[in-house]
């Protein structure tokens, strides 16, 4: 059997040939063309080698400048090292923990960390000068080691390290073109850090399609983002549901789409309400799509086109290259329409985990299947509906309650922007149900929410507590931190 020698850095040379002086990466005031990119990456790779980086090393990359993150990943690949993108917002002690947990040989950083006790290379002007003195001739690229250890968002605890090979990454990028009607040569405004797997995937996929990626500061307001999209003629935007909701507030009741020149708004990262999905299609851009994906599985389903209205409550049609099953706790497939745990096989399925315990819940790989940790059902037409995480399911008096059931009912109430249901300990019932509600406008009372649940939910699934809040806690990728909401309930009432 021939060993797989796929290496994503090889793409740089064909892209330079095909796109030449076209800008590839833009982060004000810097810009790198397709022709310049392989030269600068080669210089960086040689400097990395001079600093001691070798094939197979795990190379952490924590940098505020996303343009430099792209170059550092590709330079690591040229050396057949493994890139480990790290959220630049992490403090020194959190970085040190990641260095230990994922055996990072070195962490590239743009600033020193207090109490730093791990191997670090500071990306200083002097370091850049050293890189510029290196030859820019191509390196003899090897292959065989993984491309990435992708760190999960850690919404339920310490992050997992998901191992992704070069070939798997290539298949994920190609799937955007083949299955999502991905635009060619787009101007992509990316407002999310590259430690977020979706942001990274879209960046690399747009490079493959000859696009120009404009990196926007990740600490942004929706109005600033909207202004730049229109002022600079961006044609592709990736957004998490929370960003879509904020953009809808800006759009208001205007006639016509807020972004008339945008060819695609790709929404992902977490679930979006049917209300917001339909509104985005009408008020933001007629080509808004929503995907269900995970770091483990890659893209599984896409909601687009006429299905946005007809199937807005779903997570879209399962892609033809994906085999998805809904199974019971024993791993046996369930009939169409029944709810259970999701497992997937696809060309984009991750290759494994690094330093992860075998888990009964959450993301895991067993017998060639990737268990995403999500709960859902598939209808007869092949549309997937996500109902929550296995770890989020509430067991009230022996009855399984999926948070999405409660959330959908509450979000149908006029004046509700978002709702999140969580369980909290109860001596009599094992767990009770609380729902946190963000009002859209006006005076929303707890009694209104209780009345809505009394009307639309059976007794065993009605919340016993309603909390009206101004906002919900989220991580840097826009995912709701349910553990933080549960912590708020820890008290005399919980």
From TrEMBL:
InterPro entries: AMP-bd_C, AMP-bd_C_sf, AMP-dep_synth/lig_dom, ANL_N_sf, ATP-dep_AMP-bd_enzyme
Top-level taxon: Bacteria
GO MF annotation terms: ligase activity
Annotated ranges, domain AMP-dependent synthetase/ligase: 16-354
Ranges of residues in domain AMP-binding enzyme C-terminal: 405-479
Keyword match Disulfide bond: no
Keywords: Ligase
PANTHER family named among the record's database cross-references: LONG-CHAIN-FATTY-ACID--COA LIGASE, NONRIBOSOMAL PEPTIDE SYNTHASE PES1 (EUROFUNG)-RELATED
Name used for this protein in its record: Long-chain fatty acid--CoA ligase
